Amino acid sequence: MTQKYDVVVIGGGPGGYVAAIRAAQLGLKTACVEKYTGKDGKMALGGTCLNVGCIPSKALLDTSWKYHEAQDGFQAHGIEVKGVSIDVPAMIERKDKIVKQLTGGVAALFKANGVTSIEGHGKLLAGKKVEVTSPDGKVDVLEAESVILASGSRPIEIPPAPLTDDIIVDSTGALEFTSVPKKLGVIGAGVIGLELGSVWRRLGAEVVVFEAQDKFLSMADDQIAKEAMKTLTKQGLQIRLGARVTGTEIKRKQVTVSFNDAEGDQQLTFDKLIVAVGRRPWTENLLAADSGVNLDERGMIFVDDYCATSVPGVYAVGDVVRGAMLAHKASEEGVMVAERIAGHKAAMNYDLIPSVIYTHPEIAWVGKNEQQLKAEGVEVNVGVFPFAASGRAMAANDTGGMVKMIADARTDRVLGVHVIGPSAAELVQQGAIAMEFGSSAEDLGMMVFSHPTLSEALHEAALAVNGHAIHVANRKKR
């Protein structure tokens, strides 16, 4: 007998599982189909983010930063530590434990909210039917009033660097090293490449990052990107811009990378090589030929502003649709779609999705950057406050970076907040809250911020927009 549901979600990642929970909360009979299996061979919810992305990488970033501080940072506080060492298998085991705890937490939330979890590969058929192929090959068909496609993304593979079991790896493999490589190559100086490169650099690896673009962090504000390049280089990451990898060769458990840059054709040899050149939507065997759902020119599922596909009652969210491949974007799309299915007029503000790179210092931003606004012909006022002038940052011995706020010169409305420094992601979120309510820089400048806090840097940047900063010299108006 065919099982019938109000909503069937294909994919249990941050877009899918959140959509399923919200749909169930709204009284809709909901099922979520997921094919991913964890290290224990059992189905694991949470998608890339929880299993092999955001969460495990943050666990390794935090461990490696603590190790780095114990080695190099404690002396400034008068703390002397001798004989610090890193147990890499123990670090990986801790990471796995956190992942298991969180994926198990999603399963518990499904149970608490009445979501039916179905293990297998989901495929959309015509007429809003979903074919589920279980791990043992058994095929079932589910009928749904509405279907949400949330199949996520996978790392892009490139011909010059085909993946191997343990020497040339993608972002997933880079989370599983059992020892610190002496020499590590990373292809791609984006979010993933910089984060993973940072982890193993802190633990002692010599790291070279190859970036095909001539510009570093082209998606970030120029001033912030310049500061990031300076800081990460100082930390020991060798970032080679305009470096195009042309081939790889493995010999005696090492990989030789051939690349071309401004100096011509060159070669470097590494113990491990991470390929982190981006991700692509996971649509393989997701859509039957007669499903009616269309893909765009980039291979993503075509949707409107509310994540509706070309088939009434079929929606798609997260990495499989247009926009930034971010877990928080996927989750909010999932909530929006569930609420629209339930008859609510939900919408989402795509202009205020924060971006974060979890290096140390963190790099984060929300809204538009200075070069975008200049290109649009918008006149702006800019306020910058360095953490070097923050009492709280000094106390923590973490004074690198700055807060930058950009406001419309005519209306004073905040158009962008860009931060490199301690707790950058948290400070940018404060900016996002202000911007969501149409705040002006003056509004933020008039608020009382507790002292001493890192948040005061945001306050001072807001004051600096109009030349009123107290704890740093204001730029003279021309």
From TrEMBL:
Cofactor note: Binds 1 FAD per subunit.
GO molecular function (one): flavin adenine dinucleotide binding
The keyword Cell cycle is assigned to this record: no
Gene Ontology cellular component annotations, sorted alphabetically: cytoplasm
Keyword annotations from UniProtKB, A to Z: Cytoplasm, Disulfide bond, FAD, Flavoprotein, NAD, Nucleotide-binding, Oxidoreductase, Redox-active center
Binding site for NAD(+): 188-195, 211, 278
Cofactor section: FAD
Catalysed reactions, semicolon-separated: N(6)-[(R)-dihydrolipoyl]-L-lysyl-[protein] + NAD(+) = N(6)-[(R)-lipoyl]-L-lysyl-[protein] + NADH + H(+)
Domain of life: Bacteria
Disulfide linkage: 49-54
EC number(s) reported in the record: 1.8.1.4
Domain FAD/NAD(P)-binding: 5-334
Residues at which FAD binds: 58, 122, 319, 325-328
Pfam families reported for this sequence: Pyr_redox_2, Pyr_redox_dim
Subcellular location: Cytoplasm
Active-site annotation: 451 (proton acceptor)
Note: The active site is a redox-active disulfide bond.
Oligomer and partners: Homodimer.
PANTHER family, per database record: DIHYDROLIPOYL DEHYDROGENASE, DISULFIDE OXIDOREDUCTASE
Name used for this protein in its record: Dihydrolipoyl dehydrogenase
Species in which this protein is naturally found: Halopseudomonas yangmingensis
Lineage, opening ranks: Bacteria, Pseudomonadati, Pseudomonadota, Gammaproteobacteria, Pseudomonadales
